[in-house]
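Worked example

This section walks through a single chain of length 229. The input is the sequence exactly as stored; nothing has been trimmed or padded.
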Amino acid sequence: HICFLDFEGTQFSHEMIAFGAVFATLNKDGTIKTSKRPLKLYIKSKNKVGKFVENLTGISDYDLQNMGVSFSSAMKDLKRYCGLYFSKCAFITFGSHDFRIFNQSIAYNLDSPKDITEVIHKGFFDFQGFISEFCRDEQNNPYSLENYLSVYHIDFQGRAHDPKYDAYNLMLLYDAFIKEKEITQAEYIKMLSHASHLPTPIAQSIKQLASGEDVKQEDFIRYVKEYLE
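Given that input, the structure is written out below as tokens.
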């Protein structure tokens, strides 16, 4: 079971102001079997949202005051949403900043339910950090969520920076990564061919292999000799 999460935070204090969640049950091969209707909640922060974040997300201080719940209440709602499998869930986000938002919210809310936040801490997994080990752009930088979806020929659903849709699109990316092994393999070869951190002889050999040519032992030894000279 996986709960795909996306957190939006304040501009300066990085407190959570909204989250989206999609709970999914997996098949034995790791693909998505079923998923629940996305959950979205606004959360009252101790500090102001900030103009940049308001413009980016469409979430204002007014929205939080009128539709927001406490961080503690939101965590309890998330547990109820996941149901009986909450304690056995992986909690997957796209990027490490979500983890920072989560921790900042705990720091600002001393009444947060420790039994719930500890389960989420234990199950946290950054999918962007994982997929970027296999797929990056030509400058060796990780893609955005939308661009990763494009790699797997998937259209982004809904509006970016709406946590409900970001969580849902993250689920689509995860499922495509598991299913589309040939795309992942091709992207990994492409990434290796323009990786900047590989030793020169290995990089030369990989570029030759990625272009469809064979590399013999004597080719590799020649690359080593040329590099050392």
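What to look for: The mean pLDDT is 95.
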